[in-house]
Design goal:
mainly alpha; elongated; 20 helices; Serine/threonine protein phosphatase 2A regulatory subunit; three-stranded antiparallel sheet; about 450 residues
Length: about 450
């Protein structure tokens, strides 16, 4: 069937095209075929994976990209409803190839006709993927992954914010940069999201194209300054994690590496909150007892995420992940509380208020045995916060006593605290009495008026 379909495709003469057809026909298509789609040189010229320069998108003739024929961007293509079922896959390939053309959106007056044609074609691809009533063939998976890679895996342009950071501008107050190409990018994301979520997508076949290299490039996009893009990425990565079980350990490890680089090297990343939001859902689904790998992730990545100055940008999501761990395994409460105390802010009042709020959520899931292990250093810090010169910090620390569970934990340790105080007082009294007795004995053993018992000559 695939040979018949490929026989209808226009062929490009040459060894590269013949080799491509042969690889596709026998099912040996390399899994990273999208990675050599095209790259951008400093001058803005496109070049193919083999080093040949490609003319700008929309020109009269384009050479092959990834071995597939690139059709003229202004070539009219029929709608899916106007072709028989046997031709729909062939038409999909042509439409997907047309959508591989990339345009410059910095100048809104350029390639208006081609841009609109591409947008409409992308919408047709969305409808095709959504309404599919049969398993996607491997060539469809290839074309979707290639089209997605060419459109999304782009080099980020440097922004003037790097200079502003030197001038001491608060980055949290900056307006996010919106990508001018979003009118196309959004539909590309929609095609890919619906493809990944579709029941017609066979994960065993699709993993050849959505492989580790593809996932790494997808994770790189989380640093985008456009919150709309990060929101799509969050949903898509979550779907990939759920559908491709074979990729789950790799995804967790890759996210760990992003966190390590953020914590210990750059402290700059736009997508930490979105990644933590995905992890919150993942942690919620962890089976019990927790694997050692997951406990190490808590200890080495999540707890140190309290260190960066910009923790306010993702603290809500981080707090949720931390609390999920404690609710899964209450024995981790001592580890988490001591970790919070390790990174407790000293001069940042707003950060300290956040820590007190997170501490309350952790204590709500803490049992008596774990509470007793850390209560001494814990209440030393709470006492320090209560005595803070900043009224919001002191007020937030006092609010802990409004929590019934925390109050019960404190009450259950009243008697132990009183017993310790009583033992301490008894020990102090005995020590003072012993010293007094020794002083009296020393005075009795010495002749009157003569120190150390020595007689005068």
């Amino acid at each position: 069937m695939i040979k018949q379909i490929l026989g209808r495709l226009p062929k490009k003469t040459g060894k590269a095209g013949d080799a491509r057809d042969a690889a596709t026909s026998n099912g040996n298509e390399p899994s990273n075929s999208y990675s050599v789609a095209r790259s951008v040189e400093p001058g803005g010229n496109k070049r193919a994976g083999n080093g040949e320069h490609l003319p700008p998108a929309g020109s009269a003739s384009n050479p092959a990209m990834n071995g597939a024929v690139v059709y003229h961007s202004n070539e009219p293509l029929p709608a899916f409803k106007d072709v028989p079922v046997s031709e729909k896959q062939n038409l999909f390939v042509r439409k997907a190839t047309l959508c591989c053309a990339v345009y410059d959106f910095a100048d809104p007056t350029k390639n208006l006709k081609e841009k609109e044609m591409k947008r409409q074609t992308l919408m047709e691809l969305v409808d095709y993927v959504t309404s599919a009533n049969g398993k996607f063939s491997e060539i469809i998976m290839l074309e979707i992954s290639k089209m997605v890679a060419i459109n999304l895996f782009r080099s980020s342009n440097p922004t003037p914010r790097e200079n502003k950071a030197i001038e001491g501008v608060d980055m949290e107050e900056e307006e996010p940069l919106m990508d001018p190409a979003w009118s196309h990018l959004q539909i590309v994301y929609e095609v890919f999201l619906r493809f990944v979520a579709s029941q017609e997508t066979d994960a065993k076949l699709a993993k050849r194209y959505i492989d580790h290299s593809f996932i790494l490039k997808l994770l790189d996009l989380f640093d985008s300054e456009d919150p709309r893009e990060r929101d799509y990425l969050k949903t898509i990565l979550h779907r990939i994690y759920g559908k491709f079980m074979v990729h789950r350990p790799f995804i967790r490890k890759a996210i760990n590496n992003i966190f390590y680089r953020f914590i210990f090297e750059t402290e700059k990343h736009n997508g930490i909150a979105e990644l933590l939001e995905i992890l919150g859902s993942i942690i919620n689904g962890f089976a019990l007892p927790l694997k050692e790998e997951h406990k190490l992730f808590l200890l080495r990545a999540l707890i140190p995420l309290h260190k960066p100055k910009c923790v306010a940008m993702y603290h809500q999501q981080l707090s949720y992940c931390i609390t999920q761990f404690v609710e899964k395994d209450c024995k981790l409460a001592d580890t988490v509380i001591r970790g919070l105390l390790k990174y407790w802010p000293i001069t940042n009042s707003s950060k300290e208020v956040m820590f007190l709020g997170e501490l309350e959520e952790v204590l709500e899931a803490t049992q008596l045995a774990e509470f007793q292990r850390c209560m001494v250093p814990l209440f030393r810090q709470i006492a320090s916060s209560m005595n803070s010169s900043h009224f919001q910090v002191a007020e937030r620390a006092l609010f802990l006593w409004n929590n019934d569970h925390i109050e019960n934990l404190i009450k259950q340790n009243y008697k132990k605290f009183d017993d310790d105080e009583l033992k301490h007082e008894e020990s102090s009294s005995k020590r003072e009495a012993l010293w007094k007795r020794l002083e009296e004995m020393g005075g009795e053993s010495s002749p009157s008026g003569i120190p150390n018992g020595k007689s005068s000559q």
